[in-house]
């Protein structure tokens, strides 16, 4: 039932609006609304009950293991939320003078410093509001760098075929052509393909390391050397930083610019799809071009650096200073981890992934890159199950939901057939991983017995399998009252 | 080990299952030259109690004066239920609803939100949010360029009555796509878009016209005439609107003969705390004709195999994870949690409540203007109807006056000097429904005193 279907004319949540209707007489009629907007007319209890019940129809980290590859669905510590929502932080207007935000700015400045240290970059800007916006800023910085040198012939960005979809989409938004290169059979970048792609037209390359196939790019130093020799720059997609946090640094690998998904590695909530935060780190070549604003410390005081302080900046990405509430959560998390906790994240995320991979392999599932170590994630290919039993990765995904596990990422990366990209994260206990293996085995058994049963899953959720074709064909994107 | 559940026994069992002796071995594919450890400057781990002490102390330093600043972020009352429910773990710690059956809560909230935004704007289709108001405007500009098949100029008219930060952000985001953003000046007395300046574009190929209503100065634009002008010139109209104002102002879908084509804006007024500027959310609503050009997630209603209604992400072929380099935008994550808060807010307020909030803001700003009207050295910059913001011109340096007022516990407004030097010493002020008569009196006293001191200096 929709909130609109609870609506009754004349009902309201009376405590929530001014008691009197103020006069609007000095807004002349032509500027005014003639009919009231369609919003529900409900009581406060109805609202609370309706949305509490809706929340219960969600899977979430707080309720189920969520091994969604490439998304790092780890526990979001409650302290991060509670402390970021202290009333003084929430009450500050973005245009209040910096002196009324010294506490908040101190946190952000320290976060910038910690992120620069853990990534090996010269400086960090917290301006991007999500990973994809960090990518946009990073590639725009690469472009600004080349343009500042008059290198207008550099029109191509190289992207591996296994990259996140945001990489090629971002390159295009920055006015670049995308040159895809293949992934070799061992999961690393195909070096011959890279060498063929490099040339005077190369502006840069976008890489994720560990890569989207769940392995560490072993020849990264050689890649960096080749790209730099060709005059290009290296962009690091930080989606998988959880795998190497505190163990290895993108700056040491030769990357010129990186974005971090703070909603992944630094455990800020995914919120049903945002808000994220895509902090951006730059090396010496791109430092001057970072997006604004950036927190600066001057003596014991903090202030925002803007256009005036950073004339070479690519500019602003948001109206104000980015997703500051998210950044405060990331700060609290980074402090709780500290110097000792950061490498532990990488160690236990990697331990969990390799354990789960070993168990699934022992259970007879096909690992996409069996000769490689898993990073913090790995790929199971259900190609054989699809062929022999007629059950797909999506069928497994849906049936896993019945067993109380959120599905892994399905059909990504595209180059592995029937892929399940599995990322358990460091915060899951061994029992949960064992339970996942047991569920995978049972689903395979079920498929052997009655494939239609698996193909019709899920059974135990708020709805059964949804007709997505119909959703796209007969578009129904908002509710309309019966007239 | 914070947030890591492994016992010593677990670690031994797991390593044994993998067939390695220690965790370090799992990193043996990383070249030795790249192994590093964190510098001593990285702070050591702390407990929750210790970090709580740090944050409470810092928050204590950030006590806020009474706020009379608007300029794109507004200090509205937020019902307690909004964030009590929004931070429930089931909303807070879920991801983008790729597995629709396991995400019906988030998906239905988004569908209800889309319905509410359609209601407020009078347009046909809403997406499930973008990052913030300014980036939503940038995406609307890109969308208009894709959607206007009658125009090949890639020229978008961006009046100077549009928020200066929005113009800068749009510039950053569209800069590399060969789009011309052309400014259109404003009337010096009315504070609204100058029709004569617009006429300079008559007969030219114009792709879209942006109209902010109420505009950055708080003044109301002649939206009907502007929309008709744009459509007569085959330009699309992008309406940049305040969602609370829409409770009392004409919705973009009803502007002029045929309505604006795209509406977008900042969702913050709908139950999102000020939080120094974020996280907020951007909204975007459009006519049916442009739905396939819309960026971001869109939720549709469908049925399951038993015919029961359910919700799912739809029209995904527009998006980066399917279309890659041919996507409508690179946007992936949006601001889902903020949309949850906004949906709760709009449900709690309803149309009547939202109208009362809007009217109270309007009335309080009028009271503020009346309270400062008698102060020597203060005059309103513009005549004509406004919503809940106004520009005041001062006879002393605005920066100094605002600084002194802040010292007296009042955030007196936004200094327009940097973006609009032609206005002289001018500030933008706003009084929301939260401002009391006492607040207004304090404002007037603080301003009078600050001006007197500044004049003497």
Automatic annotation (TrEMBL), chain A:
It is an enzyme of class 1 (oxidoreductase). The modification N6-(pyridoxal phosphate)lysine is found at residue 264. This is Probable glycine dehydrogenase (decarboxylating) subunit 2. The keyword Lipid biosynthesis does not apply. InterPro entries: Aminotrans_V_dom, GcvPB, GDC-P_C, GDC_P, PyrdxlP-dep_Trfase, PyrdxlP-dep_Trfase_major, PyrdxlP-dep_Trfase_small. Its cofactor is pyridoxal 5'-phosphate. It catalyses: N(6)-[(R)-lipoyl]-L-lysyl-[glycine-cleavage complex H protein] + glycine + H(+) = N(6)-[(R)-S(8)-aminomethyldihydrolipoyl]-L-lysyl-[glycine-cleavage complex H protein] + CO2. The gene is gcvPB. Its EC number is 1.4.4.2. The glycine cleavage system is composed of four proteins: P, T, L and H. In this organism, the P 'protein' is a heterodimer of two subunits. It holds the Pfam family GcvP2_C. Residues 148-271 form the Aminotransferase class V domain. Residues 346-449 form the Glycine dehydrogenase C-terminal domain. It comes from Nitrococcus mobilis Nb-231. GO terms for biological process: glycine decarboxylation via glycine cleavage system. The glycine cleavage system catalyzes the degradation of glycine. The P protein binds the alpha-amino group of glycine through its pyridoxal phosphate cofactor; CO(2) is released and the remaining methylamine moiety is then transferred to the lipoamide cofactor of the H protein. Belongs to the GcvP family. C-terminal subunit subfamily. Keywords: Oxidoreductase, Pyridoxal phosphate.
Automatic annotation (TrEMBL), chain B:
InterPro entries: GcvPA, GDC-P_N, GDC_P, PyrdxlP-dep_Trfase, PyrdxlP-dep_Trfase_major, PyrdxlP-dep_Trfase_small. It catalyses: N(6)-[(R)-lipoyl]-L-lysyl-[glycine-cleavage complex H protein] + glycine + H(+) = N(6)-[(R)-S(8)-aminomethyldihydrolipoyl]-L-lysyl-[glycine-cleavage complex H protein] + CO2. One of its GO terms (molecular function) is glycine dehydrogenase (decarboxylating) activity. SUPFAM superfamilies: PLP-dependent transferases. Residues 3-441 form the Glycine cleavage system P-protein N-terminal domain. Its EC number is 1.4.4.2. The keyword tRNA processing does not apply. Keywords: Oxidoreductase. GO terms for biological process: glycine decarboxylation via glycine cleavage system; nucleoside metabolic process. Signal peptide: none annotated. Gene3D superfamilies: Aspartate Aminotransferase, domain 1, Type I PLP-dependent aspartate aminotransferase-like (Major domain). It comes from the Bacteria. PANTHER family: GLYCINE CLEAVAGE SYSTEM P-PROTEIN (PTHR42806), GLYCINE DEHYDROGENASE (DECARBOXYLATING) (PTHR42806:SF1). Belongs to the GcvP family. N-terminal subunit subfamily. The glycine cleavage system catalyzes the degradation of glycine. The P protein binds the alpha-amino group of glycine through its pyridoxal phosphate cofactor; CO(2) is released and the remaining methylamine moiety is then transferred to the lipoamide cofactor of the H protein. The glycine cleavage system is composed of four proteins: P, T, L and H. In this organism, the P 'protein' is a heterodimer of two subunits. HAMAP family: GcvPA (MF_00712). This is Probable glycine dehydrogenase (decarboxylating) subunit 1. It comes from Nitrococcus mobilis Nb-231.
């Amino acid at each position: 039932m929709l909130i609109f279907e609870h609506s009754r004319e004349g009902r309201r949540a009376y405590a929530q609006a001014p008691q009197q209707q103020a006069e609007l007489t000095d807004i002349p009629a032509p500027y005014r609304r003639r009919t009231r907007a369609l919003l529900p007319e409900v009581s406060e209890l109805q609202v609370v009950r309706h949305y509490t019940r809706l929340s219960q129809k969600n899977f979430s980290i707080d309720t189920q293991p969520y091994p969604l590859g490439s998304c790092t669905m780890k526990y979001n510590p409650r302290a991060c939320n509670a402390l970021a929502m202290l009333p003084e932080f929430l009450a500050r207007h973005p245009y209040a003078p910096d002196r009324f935000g010294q506490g908040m700015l101190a946190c952000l400045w320290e976060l910038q410093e910690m992120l620069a240290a853990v990534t090996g970059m010269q400086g960090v800007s917290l301006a991007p509001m999500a990973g994809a916006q960090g990518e946009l800023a990073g590639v725009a910085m690469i472009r600004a760098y080349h343009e500042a040198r008059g290198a207008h012939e550099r029109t191509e960005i190289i992207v591996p075929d296994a990259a996140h979809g945001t990489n090629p989409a971002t390159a295009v938004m920055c006015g670049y052509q995308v040159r895809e290169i293949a992934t070799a059979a061992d999961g690393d970048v195909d070096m011959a393909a890279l060498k063929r792609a490099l040339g005077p037209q190369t502006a840069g390359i976008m890489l994720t390391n560990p890569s989207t196939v769940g392995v560490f790019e072993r020849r990264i130093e050689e890649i960096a050397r080749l790209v730099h020799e060709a005059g290009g720059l290296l962009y690091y997609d930080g989606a998988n930083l959880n795998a190497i946090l505190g163990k290895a640094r993108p700056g040491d690998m030769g990357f010129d610019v990186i974005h971090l998904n703070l909603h992944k590695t630094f455990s800020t909530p995914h919120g049903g799809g945002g808000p994220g935060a895509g902090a951006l780190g730059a090396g010496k070549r791109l430092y001057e071009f970072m997006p604004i604003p950036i927190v600066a410390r001057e003596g014991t005081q903090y202030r925002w650096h803007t256009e005036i302080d950073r004339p070479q900046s690519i500019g602003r990405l948001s109206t104000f200073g980015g997703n500051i509430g998210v950044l405060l959560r990331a700060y609290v998390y980074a402090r709780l981890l500290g110097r000792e906790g950061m490498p532990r994240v990488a160690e236990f995320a990697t331990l969990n992934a390799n354990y789960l991979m070993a168990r699934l392999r022992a259970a007879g599932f096909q690992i996409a890159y069996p000769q490689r170590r898993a990073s913090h994630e790995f790929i199971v290919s259900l190609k054989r199950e699809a062929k022999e039993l007629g059950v797909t990765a999506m069928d497994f995904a849906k049936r896993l939901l019945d067993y109380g596990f959120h599905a892994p990422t399905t059909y990504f990366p595209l180059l592995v057939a029937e892929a399940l990209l599995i990322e358990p994260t460091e915060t899951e206990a061994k029992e949960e991983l064992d339970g996942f293996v047991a569920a995978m085995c049972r689903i395979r058994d079920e498929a052997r017995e009655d494939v239609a049963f698996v193909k019709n899953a899920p059974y135990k959720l708020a709805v059964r399998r949804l007709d997505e074709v119909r959703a796209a064909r007969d578009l129904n994107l908002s509710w309309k009252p019966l007239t | 080990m914070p947030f890591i559940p492994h016992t010593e026994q677990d670690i031994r069992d797991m390593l044994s299952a993998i067939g390695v002796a220690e965790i370090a071995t799992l990193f043996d594919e990383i070249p030795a030259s790249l192994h590093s450890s964190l510098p001593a400057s990285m702070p050591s781990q702390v407990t929750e109690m210790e970090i709580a002490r740090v944050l409470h102390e810092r928050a204590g330093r950030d006590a806020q004066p009474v706020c009379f600043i608007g300029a794109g972020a507004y200090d509205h009352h937020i019902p307690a239920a909004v964030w009590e429910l929004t931070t429930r773990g089931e909303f807070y710690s879920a991801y983008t609803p790729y597995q629709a059956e396991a995400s019906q809560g988030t998906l239905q909230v988004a569908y209800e939100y889309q319905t509410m935004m359609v209601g407020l704007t009078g347009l046909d289709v809403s997406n499930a949010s973008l990052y913030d108001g300014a980036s939503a405007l940038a995406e609307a500009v890109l969308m208009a360029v894709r959607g206007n098949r009658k125009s090949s100029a890639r020229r978008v008219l961006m009046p100077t009555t549009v928020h200066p930060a929005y113009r800068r952000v749009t510039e950053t985001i569209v800069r590399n796509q060969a789009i011309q953003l052309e400014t259109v000046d404003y009337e010096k007395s009315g504070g609204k878009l100058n029709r004569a300046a617009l006429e300079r574009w008559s007969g030219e190929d114009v792709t879209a016209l942006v109209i902010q209503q109420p505009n950055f100065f708080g003044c109301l634009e002649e939206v009907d005439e502007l929309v008709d002008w744009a459509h007569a010139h085959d330009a699309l109209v992008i309406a940049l609107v305040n969602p609370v104002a829409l409770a009392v102002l004409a919705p973009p879908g009803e502007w002029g003969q045929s309505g604006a084509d795209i509406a977008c804006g900042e969702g913050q007024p709908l139950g999102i705390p000020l939080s120094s500027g974020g996280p907020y959310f951007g909204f975007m609503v459009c006519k049916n004709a442009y739905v396939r050009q819309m960026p971001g997630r869109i939720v549709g209603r469908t049925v399951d195999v038993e015919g029961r209604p359910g919700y799912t992400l739809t029209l995904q072929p527009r998006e980066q994870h399917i279309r890659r380099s041919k996507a409508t935008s690179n946007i992936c994550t949006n601001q889902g949690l903020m949309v949850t808060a906004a949906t709760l807010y709009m449900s709690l307020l309803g149309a009547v409540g939202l109208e009362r909030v809007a009217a109270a803001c309007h009335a309080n700003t009028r009271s503020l203007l009346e309270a400062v009207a008698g102060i020597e050295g203060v005059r309103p910059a513009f005549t004509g109807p406004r919503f809940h913001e106004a520009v005041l011109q001062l006879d002393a340096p605005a920066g100094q006056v605002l600084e002194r007022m802040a010292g007296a516990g009042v955030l007196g407004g936004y200094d327009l000097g940097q973006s609009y030097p032609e206005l002289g010493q001018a500030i933008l002020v706003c009084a929301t429904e939260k401002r009391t008569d006492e607040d207004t009196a304090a404002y007037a006293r603080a301003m009078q005193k600050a001006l007197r001191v500044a004049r003497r200096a």
